[in-house]
Write a structure and sequence with these properties.
Helix content: 40-55%
Order of helices and strands: HHHHHHHHHHEEEHEEHEEEH
Number of domains: 3
Distance between the termini: 36 Å
CATH topology of the largest domain: Ribonuclease iii, N-terminal Endonuclease Domain, Chain A
Largest sheet: 5 strands, mixed
Shape: globular
Number of strands: 8
Strand content: 15-25%
CATH superfamily of the largest domain: Ribonuclease III domain
Oligomer: single chain
Amino acid sequence: MNPHLSMKIFTPTHTPPPSSPEMKQAVAAVEMIVGYVFKNKRLLEEALTHPSHPDAVSYQRLEFVGDAVLSLAISNYLFLAYPRIDQGDLTLLRSANVSTEKLARVAVRHGFFRFLRHSTPVLNDQVREFTEVVSGEVETPLVYRGSVKAPKVLADIVESVAAAIYVDLNFDLEKLWMIFRHVLEPIVTLKDLHQQPQPVTKLFDVCQKNGKHVDIKYWRDEMKGIASVYVDGKFVASGSSEYKEVARVNAAEIALCKLSKLMRMDDVSIEVIAETDGSFHIEEAKNKLYQLCGKKKWPKPVYNIKQDEGSSHEKKFVSTVQIATIEGVVCMTGDEMSRKKDAENSAASWMIRSLQELDDY
């Protein structure tokens, strides 16, 4: 860095409205939690303001800084703490310590969400569900995803508070780490990684036991790396990240999620048997899937009734649906139904869910 350049904190030219008593109490409480008293308390107010809250600057800019700052702070720590491990393990350790999953648990542990100003009621339900699950877990670092998806807003708060401290310290990374490390504990260690099987390793083990061949292909798309999992040459899942190792882990996690319920192979596809939770309306699934294939310029879905058992009054049907995408053939199996039409709609609904899941990642 040029020694003649320096970082300066710029303040807005307009005078912000006075802080409410509730916000002053929130700021004091969070200062107590992190063990740091702000010189510019407006920074912490901003860190505790969701974009949905009206007439106030949100945490989005601070969250942008906090994401990078925590990643760098953790990288420095791991580099010094593990002088003999390679870049791949360092990348996995960093990813585990700054993941949405890990930071969301940090937010729950310290109760940060109760101090957040927002106007989005659905966040309350998402955070409540996640908090209930986390509260019932054994107090050990969770390296990879748990049973409930972590709300991103929780990780955003942790990153924003860290950035607020960093800016208030005039961008001193070393001081930030000294202050904020205890908030992030327990830090995920190399031992934790070894005790909780890495998804890529687990995927290869599972498929090897089933006599299947796994291949993970990787390429870069502009600024993002993409990894795709193929089992016996058939596409299963994709994952993306700025870092190759993390993209591989993400793809392996999704593949394991799909294959863990029941993995069956035939000469054209991988089939995932799923259970219905009643939350998805399937009556028009075939029509929706047909429209989706047309939009993506894929061939029409192919349905096949795989089960036709029982007496004429108690027949049960199970249908599969197969789609030939540009990345490979995907086949889903639906639930057991009393009518062929319902069985095909069930298969179509699970296919739509699977494709949506890939888009989410």
